[in-house]
């Protein structure tokens, strides 16, 4: 465990005088009937909780030697994703996707990575969702991965395009039955206001049945998107916070087509 993860005196769970209830308080999260939330959730106790939280790494942090970084970002990204997956990271293949519509106001959400290759970073969603509509208005996005076990973050920015109907259908066919059912249920209505919870339950029951009956069913709004990166940044945490940032920017004149530079952390 690195120094950055250790509890400091006074942190919940550190056993310091005066905070002996802190662990009990956090233990009751989710049990709303049993807890007077106003009593435990004062601003002060919340601040104390935040100050005591630490990123839980999975052991000694790896080192990013900028001189050893490859000429292009893709091999490094794939290596880091493999290492995140191998480090017990619970969701190594999920990322934040940030988009903005015509009004320029950003929005973000978690999506799954469906591929990363010479074409770019792939993800699937409904064209009719909020993010789909924003991408239609402004075809640029930013992706962010955070892998706490290895103390790493990757940010990717660039232009986004639709992969086309055939590839989008193949993307959906390649997913699990539950993912297909969710896509069928959400087709054309993801991000819309839902009338009631019962409506959701009914729609999903019908979609589960259909996905079982018709494993090749398609959801017309399901779209595979590809982000073509023009910037990829790798961030490696260091125990004493002398973090290392390596940024790649597309530069056709450079060998490999990318310029690599260090950034202040
Ligand atoms: C772990 C996780 C993975 C997700 N993966 C996807 C995904 O691959 N595609 C998708 O459309 N939504 C996915 N979602 C749901 C999105 O975060 C989001 O709620 C939904 O797509 C609607 O977003 P929008 O209203 O901004 O368009 C995922 C959510 C979580 C928590």
Automatic annotation (TrEMBL):
The cross-references to InterPro entries, in alphabetical order and at most eight, read: Pyridox_Oxase, Pyridox_Oxase_N, Pyridoxamine_oxidase_dimer_C, Split_barrel_FMN-bd
Q: What are the Pyridoxine 5'-phosphate oxidase dimerisation C-terminal domain coordinates in residue numbering?
A: 222-265
Record-listed E.C. numbers:
1.4.3.5
* Keywords associated with the record: Flavoprotein, FMN, Oxidoreductase
Q: Which residues form the Pyridoxamine 5'-phosphate oxidase N-terminal domain?
A: 91-209
According to the UniProt entry, its GO molecular function terms are: pyridoxamine phosphate oxidase activity
The annotated regions of Acidic residues compositional bias extend over 22-41
Where are the residues of the annotated region Disordered? 1-41
The cofactor required is: FMN
Q: Name one Pfam family in it.
A: PNP_phzG_C
NCBIfam families cross-referenced by the UniProt entry: PRK05679.1
Q: Which family does it belong to?
A: Belongs to the pyridoxamine 5'-phosphate oxidase family.
Q: Which protein are we looking at?
A: Pyridoxal 5'-phosphate synthase
Q: Species name for this entry?
A: Streptomyces coffeae
Q: What is the lineage of its organism?
A: Bacteria, Bacillati, Actinomycetota, Actinomycetes, Kitasatosporales
